[in-house]
Amino acid sequence: MRRERIYQSLVWGAVFLYAFNEFVLQPYFPSLLAGKLSDFAWLFFAPVVVYALFKTFFPTRIFRHADIYIWGAIGGGFILVKVSPSINQLVNAYLWGITLHIVLDPTDIVAIVALGLSFWLFRFSKENFLVSRRFAFALGGLTLLLTLADVAAPDYGIACLRVTDQGIVASSAYASYISQDGGESWHRYEDTSPCINPRLPQEPKVIMDENLSVRFAPGQPIEISTKPGEWRVEYPLRPASGAQRMYYARFHPGNPHVHQGPLDAVIDPKSGNVIFAMGHEGILIRKANGVWVWRAVGPYFRVQNPGLKLHEMLWGEMVLSLSAALLSLIGLGNCARYKSRWARIASYGIILYAWFLFIVTMYFFPPALQNKYGIKLIELLVWATAGTSMMAALFVFPKSPCVTGKSLIYIVIFSILFFAPYVLWFEGMLQNYNVATILSFMLLGLSVVWRHQSVSPPKISKGAER
């Protein structure tokens, strides 16, 4: 039984590695390793899930060599989807009627090593591999959810434009829209070729007609030329702030992938307007008279920072700023005195646990950077951190002579100082969220040092401590 338990532990470890890679490593620490890690983990545990479900519903005597067929089918299907363009396109287009995006990448088949390792280890525990219905359903449901979350087609917003006889067609991964008035208004359009895998420009791209030429690149100023060889910057494109980008990722439908536009552009032959695909910010139009305007297309529109709701984007940081203030004040007052040794140990344990939750939440799961899929889980973590901080404060403050009536004022000051850099990030004055986090901790540290100069723990005799 020991082998079977070790093997099941490895399976669960692969599941959690897969989830950690999808929701932490790939979004925040993208790399070649993160791109391959999901394939290795999925191929390790997916056959076990299928076998567990199979064994739950069917007697073993029906299929004596079910494991060989299951591992072989999963391995063969994985190779075909990763290597064959036609099979990959077929699966992405028709599997369950869900919009999927399984990447065509022959180098991913190196992950078959994990499938072989899984099968080899499974063979050692096959005879005594006990499967309960609870284990099968829990593992099966979790695997299905993680797999669908991984293969959902990324939505770059309005990323593809083309001129048709009916008008200008703008497409995202999930829908297409048409305009017959030079991009001023857009209506839903039934299209058989959605923009699932757009070719995002890496170098400046030039489009032209008989009147002008337009040169653009993602995140770069848009240049116009009316004479050969003479270019002028006509629209100094301002990049979306970090708060704007996270707003699109959290509140826009589908599986948003936010990239700075322009992602594509066309010139409307009827109106002479130049229309730019700006991803999740909708459409940017240069009218024939030289006026620039933004237009919404379906759920995609440009949101200005004043239009963002502070409490929606930074509610987690608001709660954690109070936790930071409480924990900092507790950190000052190692002047909590308990006669019981176990009471002192318990107080230090609660404080350390509260600091652990706080640091893990702020550095590894920052609330403002969570998308729509991760925010519900992070809500639990934020409130757990706040609750633990309150418990630590209630445990320490009554026994702390350092905590006085003025302590409430210091809590308010510490909270404001910790929260202020995130407001700067929200307003676009700081582009990098991590810089805001560093500034928050620096301001909090300086405040604690300043406060520490005016607070000294009272000297208590040894007899009083007892």
What key attributes describe this structure?
14 helices, 466 residues, alpha+beta, disordered C terminus, 4-stranded antiparallel β-sheet, 12% strand
**Strand order of the main beta sheet, please?**
2-3-4-5
For the report, how would you describe the main beta sheet?
A: 4 strands, antiparallel
The gyration radius over C-alpha positions equals: 29 Å
The overall strand count is 14
Can you write the helix and strand succession as a string?
HHHHHHEEEEEEEEEHEEEEEHHHHHHH
Residue-averaged pLDDT, rounded?
A: 78
**Domains, number:** 3
Number of continuous helical runs = 14
Global structural class: alpha+beta
Question: How does this structure look, described?
Answer:
The protein is α+β, with helices and mostly antiparallel strands. It folds into 3 domains: 2-152, no CATH class; 160-305, no CATH class; 309-465, no CATH class. Helix content is 51%, strand content 12%. The protein is built from 14 helices and 14 strands. The strands form 4 sheets. A 4-stranded antiparallel β-sheet has the order 2-3-4-5, with no helix packed on it. A 4-stranded antiparallel β-sheet has the order 6-7-8-9, with no helix packed on it. The protein has a 4-stranded antiparallel β-sheet with strand order 11-12-13-14, with no helix packed on it. A hairpin with a 5-residue loop joins strand 13 and strand 14 (292-295). The protein is flat, with a radius of gyration of 29 Å.
